[in-house]
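Following the same procedure, backbone shapes were mapped to integers, yielding the entry below.
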Amino acid sequence: MTEQPAHLDNQPLNELEEQLARGEQPDANPVDVILAFLNNEVYVVSSDALEGPDSQVEPLVLANSSGKPVLAVFSHPSRVTEQYLAAAPNVLGTQGAAIIGNLGDELGMVINPGAAYGFEIDPEGVANIRRDFKPSDEFADGTAGSADRPAQDTDLA
């Protein structure tokens, strides 16, 4: 028997993936999934490499089934398949909150495209997360620390 590639493994590899797996359950709280995304390291792929603290990269943007642009985000480096690495060979880690904070108004995102643990958020959902989840602390450089639960139940979709 051959071993499955890591990106096809159905075992959660980190806290974010544990929350993504729980998010499939009928009694799941979507807030827990969003907080796990915001407060954990996630990965984007880029044709550009980071060359310093102020360098900028263009992460891989895909088209969803409706042809709308979505940023490809991965919960673990092993979830990045060869098809994405061929287009963008550099895997870069960042906080999920930084992704949400830097997405424009027209761009959605897809977590783990084609993998067992994944989902898509449209631009309106991204805007709702940005509005409803505030950083609980900020670092000296102004970047977000961890995120807190929203003050009230909100519609995240």
Strands lie at 41-46, 61-63, 69-73, 90-95, 108-111, 119-121.
